[in-house]
Write a structure and sequence with these properties.
Archaeosine Trna-guanine Transglycosylase, Chain: A, domain 4; 5 helices; 6 strands; about 15% helix; globular
């Protein structure tokens, strides 16, 4: 299955349904289910963002903190890539909060993600650049069809627009 690695806290924000677009310097030619991998590295500047809005409140819905630092180096969820558009076009579609969660500079691409969900048990995995393949056959996690994973309570699922 295809996997995309994210620096935290962005991986958690996607799985929570707080972040609908992922911005990258390259266009996605892949559409469909991807697994969300939280990169092992969690830079200090990214940890600092957690203390600022809109990161602070988005990581604490209903007063429950998400603890993104605990998920580093794991596949934590899945989402559907449904669209990939130039960031200039995405600027007309997004909120200020969404804009704060990405780099919408010129020449970049916005991947629209739908149906985000957390896995019931994170899967340890070494991340890679770009879209990469994960083989469940080499994993100790018994969950093999991420599309059938229910969203745990307290985790948002974004409705279709």
């Amino acid at each position: 299955m295809r996997v995309l690695s994210f620096t935290q806290p962005w991986a958690t924000l996607v799985c929570r349904g707080e972040k609908e677009f992922e911005t990258r310097s390259w266009k996605s030619w892949y559409y469909g289910t991807i697994l969300i991998h939280a990169s092992k590295a969690y830079p200090g500047w990214a940890k600092q963002l957690e203390k600022e809005e809109p990161f602070y409140s988005s990581l604490r819905p209903h007063g429950q903190y998400s603890y993104p630092e605990l998920a580093c180096g794991h596949i934590i969820g899945s989402a559907e890539v449904v669209e990939c558009i130039p960031t200039e076009a995405a600027l007309n579609l997004i909120s200020e909060k969404e804009r704060a969660f990405g780099d919408y500079g010129p020449g970049r691409y916005a991947w629209r993600l739908r149906d985000p969900r957390f896995l019931p048990k994170p899967i340890p995995a070494k991340g890679h650049l770009g879209l990469w393949e994960f083989d469940f056959g080499n994993s100790t996690n018994e969950q093999t069809d991420v599309r059938q994973v229910p969203i745990p309570s307290g985790h948002a699922q974004r409705d279709e627009a």
